[in-house]
Design a protein that fits this description.
The complex is a heterodimer of chains A (264) and B (352).
Chain A (H helix, E strand, L loop, with lengths): L1 H6 L1 H6 L12 E5 L3 E5 L5 E4 L41 H28 L6 H16 L16 E9 L5 E6 L7 H12 L9 H16 L3 E9 L4 H5 L10 E10 L4
Antiparallel strand pairs in A: 1-2, 2-3, 4-5, 4-6, 6-7
Helix pairs in contact in A: 3-4
Chain B lengths: L1 H27 L5 H23 L1 H5 L7 H7 L17 H17 L3 H18 L6 H15 L8 H10 L10 H25 L3 H5 L2 H6 L16 H21 L6 H19 L2 H11 L5 H11 L40
Classes of the chains: A alpha+beta (264), B mainly alpha (352).
């Protein structure tokens, strides 16, 4: 290995003029502008000088390579390619460990790329690979598309409600309430209503029921009426002509039904 | 035939080895863990804030009659590999479990027992997110991603109570954290994941007409539910909106390439600051903007971060500029070779 490296100095430059001399049993890291560092198998690091003449007294003196900013004469160092100390027994174990880490790394990289790539619209190939990675991605909460404001920023979905108490009083409200603080909490409520449109068809009714039950309990109501509201986006022309984002005509109502609440 | 093939095989072998070396250097070159420690603190603070806010409405989102009932969420996740410890928590144990979760996140942020608390923090983050999937958004995704990589890497080796305790026990020899391949692996994973996020955020926008016509930023700014500052004045400046739209998409799509160019990296990171501070200020998503910036901070130069940390640390000298952290203990002024040395194997090389 060392001979191959020495025979191709341009390779050294391509990897930032850093050399790994494994045959010596030590890892020698070189960097032209920063001097030399030696990394021993026990994990310790030692500083060195570019000219290879190290601080007197360093136990690593003999290990330093007399190289400057550039590796100019690799033949001069070929004598370094001699058998080094016998590799410790645990090296094989470390090698297998490194292989395992590399395999996991490749799988992980495929998984984090395929997660957004398999979002609709996607190819059969992408979906097939995603199926393999899905358990891993879901278990680690990495199965996301990262389609922020894509394919285009859309109008908002809100939830308007009327909660009727047994005494006949009615509480009306809308979620999310812009007065909610802190802002992160406001976004939590906002996501509850935004995700209503994305709920699977078979769960949509149970979803609305869950919201109604919660509101009934929160307000002590026996009946809750839910209305999904779509807040349409205003065009630039409309705003230039004096329109406002809060104009009532920018809201569309879609009644979701009346729900009897037994949880209050 | 063999003569013809041999050079090709040799070339392919050499290229393969070179690629393997580059791969090895990219992922496993020992790196100073100071930046990872900084990311742990920043991510931990965001986790603490995020979960503290859950505490304001714990019953509403995690109780038995919550917005999303446990039965509904479990039904939607029946074919998925999601898990959450909240499914095991009885009603009366909701607050104790929440308190324990917050304690774990606090210890993780402080860097105490980090090897354990980082993994527990990941379980906490994932469990909260899987319990209320319809109340989560990008913030939770980035929180989990960063926590995962901070659990993989030795994020407690620097800027942590673990480090402080180790120094107290080990003396000055442990004054600086040793570079480690694990730290580099974690930082690289964050780097690459941020590139994946921005790339897909960018190309997914290209499916929408509004990002081509330049109206997308107007659609975002004019969304009252997102808006935290009135930006309707931009209706009189459509060219500015077009420019903002095009620049945002281009920046996101090309981030994964240009961020690796040393000369362009500061520019790309400055773009990230502008983009995410803009998202925070105009769309009210400060938490999301800040956590994305924490992810982008993984691209900061390790050396600069270590110097900054050293400069901010009271009573510490600035570290010497070097390739890596060099935990060299001070050596007495005794002429070599009379000084006692660490035994080394005989090697008749470089002996002048």
């Amino acid at each position: 290995m060392i001979e191959r490296r020495i025979a191709a100095p341009q390779q050294w430059r391509r990897i930032e003029r850093r050399i790994l001399l494994t045959s010596l049993g030590y890892r020698h890291w070189l960097k032209g502008t920063d001097g030399i560092c030696l990394w021993a198998p026990d994990g310790r690091l030692k500083p060195g000088r570019k000219d290879g003449r190290d601080l007197p007294g360093s136990s690593w003196h003999s290990r330093y390579l007399p190289m400057g900013d550039h590796v100019v004469n690799p033949d001069a160092h070929s004598r370094l390619a001699v058998p080094g100390p016998t590799p410790p027994r645990h090296r094989n174990g470390r090698r297998y460990w490194r292989w395992m880490v590399n395999l996991w790394l490749v799988f992980h990289l495929v998984a984090i790329v395929i997660a957004p790539a398999a979002m609709d619209p996607s190819s059969e190939l992408a979906r097939s690979v995603h199926d393999v990675c899905q358990p891993y991605l879901e278990a680690l909460y990495l199965d996301h598309g990262y389609h922020f404001f894509a394919p285009a920023p859309e109008e908002s979905t809100l939830l308007s409600f009327e909660a009727e108490r047994p005494d006949g009083t009615v509480v009306r409200g809308r979620i999310p309430d812009r007065a909610t603080q802190p802002r992160l909490l406001y976004h939590r409520y906002f996501m509850l209503t935004e995700h209503m449109n994305q709920s699977p068809e078979e769960f949509r009714d149970r979803w609305h029921e869950s919201y109604a039950q919660h509101l009934g309990r929160a307000y002590g109501a026996s009946r809750v009426k839910l209305i999904r509201q779509t807040h349409l986006l205003s065009s630039m022309e409309r705003i230039r002509e004096g329109g406002r984002l809060t104009d009532p005509e920018s809201y569309e109502d879609h009644p979701l039904g009346d729900f009897a609440c037994d949880a209050y | 035939m063999r003569r013809l093939l041999n050079p090709v095989v040799r070339d392919l072998t050499a290229r393969g080895r070179s690629l393997a070396d580059d791969w090895d250097a990219f992922w496993f070159r020992p790196a100073d863990p100071t930046l990872l420690g900084l990311l742990r603190i920043l991510t931990g603070l965001m986790l603490l804030y995020t979960h503290a806010v859950w505490g304001l409405v714990l019953g509403q989102f995690f109780g038995p009659v919550s917005w999303l009932s446990p039965a509904l969420v479990r039904a939607t996740q029946q074919d998925q590999y999601n898990y959450s410890f909240w499914w095991l928590v009885a009603d009366g144990w909701m607050w104790p479990v929440y308190g324990f979760s917050m304690a774990v996140l606090l210890l993780f942020t402080l860097g105490l027992f980090t090897r354990v608390t980082s993994i527990l923090s990941l379980l906490v983050v994932i469990s909260f997110a899987h319990r209320v999937p319809q109340a989560t958004f990008g913030l939770d995704q980035i929180n989990a991603m960063l926590t995962l990589y901070l659990a993989i890497g030795p994020s407690g080796q620097a800027l942590s109570l673990d480090r402080f305790i180790a120094r107290r026990r080990g003396g000055s020899a442990l004054s600086r954290p040793a570079p480690s391949a694990g730290a580099n692996l974690a930082l690289r994973l964050i780097n690459v994941h941020m590139c994946v996020i921005y790339f897909f955020a960018g190309i997914s926008k290209l499916q929408g007409e509004a990002w081509w016509t330049g109206e997308a930023m107007w659609r975002a700014f004019s969304n009252l539910e997102y808006q935290s500052i009135d930006m309707t004045w931009l209706a009189w400046h459509p060219w500015l909106l077009n420019l903002l739209t095009h620049v945002s998409v281009l920046w996101e799509v090309f981030f994964c390439v240009l961020i690796w160019q040393p000369r362009l990296r500061p520019l790309m990171l400055a773009g990230a600051v502008v983009l995410h501070v803009g998202i925070g200020a105009c769309l009210g998503m400060w938490t999301f903007g800040l956590i994305m910036l924490v992810g982008c901070a993984s691209f900061l130069p390790n050396q600069a971060v270590r110097d900054l940390v050293a400069a901010l640390s009271p009573g510490r000298s600035r570290p010497r500029t070097a390739l890596m952290a060099l935990p060299t203990p001070p050596q007495p002024a005794v002429p070599w070779p009379s000084r006692p040395e660490v035994p080394e194997p005989a090697l008749p090389l470089n002996r002048a």
